[in-house]
Amino acid sequence: MSAALREALNLSVFWEYREVLLKGLAFNFYVFACAAAAALTLGLGAALLRVNRWRPVRWAGTLHVEIFRNAPDYVMVVWVHFVLPLLLGFAIGRRLEFPPFLSAVIALGLVYSGYFAETFRAGIQSIPVGQIEAGRACGMSERLVLWRIILPQVVRRMLPEAVNQFVSLFKATTIVSLIAVPDLMYRVSMVTQQEMRPLPLYTGAALTYFAIIFLAASLVRAAAERWRQKVYA
Amino acid sequence: MSSIPAIRVVDVHKSFGPLAVLKGVSFDVPRGAVVSMIGASGSGKSTLLRCINRLETPSAGEIYIDGAPMHTLRSIAEINRVRRDLGMVFQQFNLWPHMTVLGNVLEAPRRVRGLARSEAAEVALECLRRVHLLDKADEYPARLSGGQQQRVAIARALAMQPKAMLFDEATSSLDPELTDEVLAVMRDLARDGTTMIVVTHEMRFAREVSDRVLFLHNGLIEEAGPPEEVFGTPRSERCRQFLSKYLQ
Amino acid sequence: MGNWERLVWNQRHLLLDGLAVTVEICLIAFAAAIVGGLLLCLVRLYVRPLRPVASALIEFFRATPIFVQLLWVNYVWPELFGWPGSFFTAGWVALALQSSGYLAETFRAGIEAVPRGQREAGLSAGMSHALAFRRIVLPQVLLMVAPSLVNQFTVIVKSSTLVSVITVQDLMFQSQKIVHTWLDPIEILTATAAIYILVVFAVSALGKALADVLRRRYGLAAS
């Protein structure tokens, strides 16, 4: 075992390919950024649907949330990449194919919009009604009340939960290698096939992700906490 | 000086499902007058006040703000336009915790009336001066006492330069030591000629400051008149019982 | 698209076999995660010299993506430890590692939520620390964290789709096999997605109902 351990921790081959691998990591970040933007937008939209006064609108929002929140990431990625282009192709009468990056962003964006929608909804419903009435009593429109009173507070209240979701989303980007997006894991498996040395490569990948996520999550959490304290004293 | 009353309420009913809370209430509030509403909890006082600025919609009846009908308005935009002319102060203050005191007060003038930030700030600072809280302009509400928060709420309502101010049990959530500072501000406003409807349990204030007192019981006005009459020689037995519980 | 019958219904045996494997691997991983999480949590709270080790492990399991852990356990561990011997084992071990990190935190929050006074009442009655823990703290913790446990089970079910990558013949694997055989992905992948969504939804609903019952019956709020 000690020979294997030495082999696993002999990260020189990982270091040797660091440029290629780092470019792969950049892809994880690209997918993360785009999917996060999509997830936040769709999630906010779905949350607003769920607190609307009309019941069918609320149901539409709930449907969106329940479908995507409960769908496994990998299933969604595969479905969006292989099925959605065919369905859309039927609709417009052409043969469509999605580039893997697009499929990844759409799939992860949809799944995480489900999580964010719940986070937003809980935040919105935690704002005391009195503050909203005070806004209305001043003659504020619903949109003003939403953007000036509700959302600023929702962001502050839900920031810790949102950070957790972002961390999960970043971790989820590792599966995009399975539809051939050239991220870190994809390149690790390519290099493994070439060098036939899986131990240090997979160990290196695990350590890399650990380092990034642990550091980034800790930093962001600390910063978020300090920002929240400023207002809630 | 126009003779149209600032607020006119005609035969207003309000039910929540099977529960009838207001059963036909009518009264006028002349310009510059202070009208106090007293009565037991559940008599419909708050509901009536909230009908006036359409936070509740009456089931029947008419409400006129400065001659313009409030009860027939359908779209939120129209309702909001009338709400600009009414200022409301809530029992729970309802200050917005993520904005400073100044931010709270200038928010509506800026975003609803569309004033530039500097203009809105001028108006806001003047209102804060009126409630004696100019020095707290840059604090966040969480750092203020209850009495200070409520005074900020009054300043916030004043900043829209409303035609009438509605006070919904403004001092009921305050510790006794803090009530006086808020009542003092309300007295000042009355002295300056502000049109006010005050729902309150503070009988002494109602007696000393109002031009007219309404006693509500079970959704109807049982007694109405100048304070000397309502407090001194009430005709209604229930009113007498209610007052005897409150006055020493 | 009248292929539903041909592609999905006729293949239902394959799909059901896959579903059975999924359920099996998830249940085993869940059990292992509870044991592992409880162990990590207790070591971290009560075994002072090993605290940094436990903390490091918890952070490591939580910060590494499940996919990476899966490949790591599958390709690296057999060389390092000579185990796991099968893809199935590698699958549930990786799933368990991931969840034990989260459950360790869940258990910790639950233990700290039990009012200290109750432990002290037990000790004053003559109980040893271990007995007080076992009879007073642990039962309450288990009740309190039950909804979180159910939630973590849904996470396991969703993550289990990845074990198909290391050739464990779960539902995802079977459906992809059918797609490769018949070259027609629409019906089968949609049906697979629907199955997973419904299963996770059902378990979630169960968790919510459980949380309601616990709150009403025992006055316990979940962490």
Structural class based on helices, strands and sheet pairing of chain C: mainly alpha
Strand content of chain B: 15-25%
> Looking at the structure, what is the overall shape of chain C?
flat
| Uncertain segments of chain C | none
Largest sheet of chain B: 6 strands, mixed
Number of strands of chain B: 10
The mean pLDDT of chain C is: 90
Low-confidence parts of chain B lasting 5 or more residues at pLDDT below 50?
none
What is the element string of chain B, with H for helices and E for strands? EEEHEEHEHHHEHEHEEHH
The name of the CATH architecture of chain C is Orthogonal Bundle
Specify the helix fraction band of chain B: 25-40%
What does the overall shape of chain B look like? globular
CATH fold-level assignment of chain C: MetI-like fold
Annotated CATH homologous superfamily of chain C = MetI-like
Q: What is the element layout, followed by pairings?
A:
The complex is a heterotrimer of chains A (233), B (248) and C (223).
Chain A: H1 2-9, H2 12-16, H3 18-50, H4 55-69, H5 73-82, H6 84-92, H7 100-125, H8 129-137, H9 142-172, H10 184-195, H11 198-232
Helix pairs in contact in A: 1-11, 3-4, 3-7, 3-10, 4-7, 5-7, 7-9, 8-9, 9-11, 10-11
Chain B: E1 7-16, E2 19-29, E3 34-39, H1 45-52, E4 60-65, E5 68-69, H2 76-83, E6 86-89, H3 101-111, H4 117-130, H5 146-158, E7 164-168, H6 176-191, E8 196-199, H7 203-209, E9 212-217, E10 220-225, H8 227-232, H9 237-246
Parallel strand pairs in B: 3-8, 3-9, 6-7, 7-8
Antiparallel strand pairs in B: 1-2, 1-4, 4-5, 9-10
Helix pairs in contact in B: 3-4, 3-5, 4-5, 5-6
Chain C: H1 4-9, H2 12-46, H3 51-63, H4 66-75, H5 77-81, H6 87-113, H7 116-124, H8 129-159, H9 171-182, H10 185-218
Helix pairs in contact in C: 2-3, 2-6, 2-8, 2-9, 3-6, 4-6, 6-8, 7-8, 8-10, 9-10
